[in-house]
Specification:
The chain has 227 residues and is mainly beta. The protein starts with a helix and ends with a strand. The chain has two helices and 17 strands. 32% of the residues are buried. A hairpin with a 4-residue loop joins strand 6 and strand 7. Strands 1-6-7-10-11-13-14-17 form an eight-stranded antiparallel barrel. A four-stranded antiparallel β-sheet has the order 2-16-15-12, with no helix packed on it. A two-stranded antiparallel sheet has the order 3-4. The chain is elongated, with a radius of gyration of 22 Å.
Length: 227
């Protein structure tokens, strides 16, 4: 049954590709979908100012999925400019090795990319690759009660605040629009984004600082509409 369904879907997509118009200079394409940010993080160790120093093996950051809103303008038949935007992503942060919930962070990662469409000007599937720049706004950082309790036990801290610096970096991507009609298509896309930040945990007895490379893979599955 699954094989029959897969074959039927493939036939449907192929039929749509035959009737689809080509992407051309001046077209707008709006992609909407489920966009997942999956961090491939690498964190420095966290050194707490105890005596002797307590060293924790960094942090991990979980995935989140939000609504992706991704407009594209075709400068020529083969070249386009894309803005990756989305509703805010929220990630839980854990301290590695001890299973403590550190807190949560919210961010927006707008990414502007120049794209190349090798089949632009031709009917059918529209694969593309791109390179761009990302600026990630990180805000609404919250400390989890588990981390606050651990800092109170280890340092005698009565309060704690978490902050992460914004990030500016490069992004690379690949994707494809699989046409269903002249204007509608299924979009599949992936980005790799360089996001590096410095995290600070501020307490009333001192500040702990460490670097985090978030470097997420970002995936989008959705639809595209050509204007």
């Amino acid at each position: 049954m699954k094989q029959v369904t897969s074959l039927a879907l493939a036939a449907f997509l192929a039929a749509g590709a035959v009737n689809a118009s080509a992407y051309e200079a001046g077209d707008w394409v709006l992609r909407l979908g489920a966009t997942t940010v999956a961090p491939d993080e690498d964190s420095d160790s966290i050194v707490l100012p105890t005596s002797p120093a307590t060293v924790l093996p960094g942090v991990s950051i979980d995935n989140d999925t939000q609504l992706g809103i991704i407009p594209v303008y075709m400068l020529t038949d083969n070249w386009g400019v894309e803005l990756l935007a989305a509703t805010p992503f929220e990630h839980d942060v854990k301290v590695n090795g001890v299973g403590i919930n550190a807190g949560s962070v919210t961010h927006l990662p707008p990414t502007l990319s120049m794209q190349w469409y090798p089949f632009g000007g031709q009917r059918g599937w529209q694969p593309y690759v791109g390179l761009g720049l990302n600026y990630t706004f990180i805000y609404d950082e919250d400390v989890d009660p588990q981390l606050a309790g651990a800092l109170e036990a280890l340092l005698g801290a009565s309060e704690a605040k978490l902050s992460l610096d914004d990030s500016f970096g490069l992004a690379a991507q690949a994707g494809v629009d699989i046409p269903l009609s002249d204007n509608w298509a299924v979009n599949l896309a992936v980005w790799y984004i360089d996001i590096d930040s410095t995290a600070k945990i501020r307490t009333d007895v001192g500040t702990v600082e460490f670097d985090v490379s978030i470097d997420p893979w970002v995936y989008n599955v959705g639809i595209a509409y050509r204007f």
